[in-house]
Amino acid sequence: MFDRFVVVDWSANSTPKRGRDSIWIAVSDQTGTTVSNPSTRAGAERMLVEGLATDARILLGVDFSLGYPNGTATALGLAGAPWEAMTAELSRMVTDDERNRNNRFEVASQMNARIGAGPGPFWGCPPSAATETLSTTKPPAGPIAEWRTVESVLRREGHRPFSSWQLLGAGAVGSQSLLGIPMIVRLQERFEGRLSVWPFDVELGVIVVAEVWPSLLPLDLTTEPVRDAAQVRGVVEWLSELDATGELDGLFRLDGVPPALHEAVVGEEGWVLGVRY
């Protein structure tokens, strides 16, 4: 299906950083696998753009949530197709400069205020960033579900995914999503007509972006000196091996997802490549 595989472990650091808990990018093709560690999101995006500017068929896996629980766009008062409306709104609101300075906590607080009077659904921030609508700790359940369908499936199978709403804490993915989704929108605009985002786009493009979750796979810490680097290497080589054996195509089929949930999955929430309902 693809000529090249790219897997990105995104980061929400507010200053340039390399090493543990920073951005790692693994690339696998017929020449082998390489792993890079750009210090900023801007630098990582330039690296991705350069790597995608080719005629090669590319699968780009990203380790952050590409969507939010069903009903989020409606709760925010956004019109139109939910996923497209939400990604456009994040692209409009989020600022993120060359040195990783960003406004993710302000965006989360503003979105919370639009959804309800109290804190949530976004939560988790330094005390200095807390507001009436954004708390440092998890608030009581609100009008929107904590989990997407795919995360509910993972939890049912004994895994421990993090909610898209959690912005801070070891393993949290919420901040990476707030900062990563606008980057995906920019890639869509740059590679219009060639890039698709699964499962939201019906037809797969020459470049396909999909959500991955490295914790689905066993981790081999002997391959790289940093855990994050070993994870992206493991996922990119797994995808490449599945493609070589003809098994990759099956990961793009949402077999078993009930009709009642299917519309929410493909229209707003998204899915993790490799998870079976």
Question: How are the SSEs ordered, and which strands pair?
Answer:
Layout: E1 4-9, E2 24-29, E3 32-36, H1 41-52, E4 58-62, H2 72-75, H3 82-93, H4 104-115, H5 149-156, H6 174-190, E5 195-197, E6 207-211, H7 227-244, H8 259-269
Helix pairs in contact: 3-6
Short account of what is shown:
This protein is of the alpha/beta class and 277 residues long. It has helices at residues 41-52, 72-75, 82-93, 104-115, 149-156, 174-190, 227-244, 259-269; strands at residues 4-9, 24-29, 32-36, 58-62, 195-197, 207-211. A hairpin with a 2-residue loop joins strand 2 and strand 3.
What sort of overall outline do the alpha carbons produce when their principal axes are compared? globular
Largest sheet: 6 strands, mixed
* Quaternary structure state of the chains depicted: single chain
Q: Rounded to an integer, what's the Rg over CA atoms? A: 18 Å
Which class of secondary structure composition applies to the elements? alpha/beta
> What is the straight-line distance between the termini?
23 Å
Strand order of the largest sheet: 3-2-1-4-6-5
* Helical residues, percent: 25-40%
Q: Are there runs of 5+ residues with pLDDT below 50, and where?
A: none
Question: What do the pLDDT scores average to?
Answer: 97
Total beta strands: 6
SSE arrangement, N to C: EEEHEHHHHHEEHH
Count of helices?
A: 8
Strand residues, percent: 5-15%
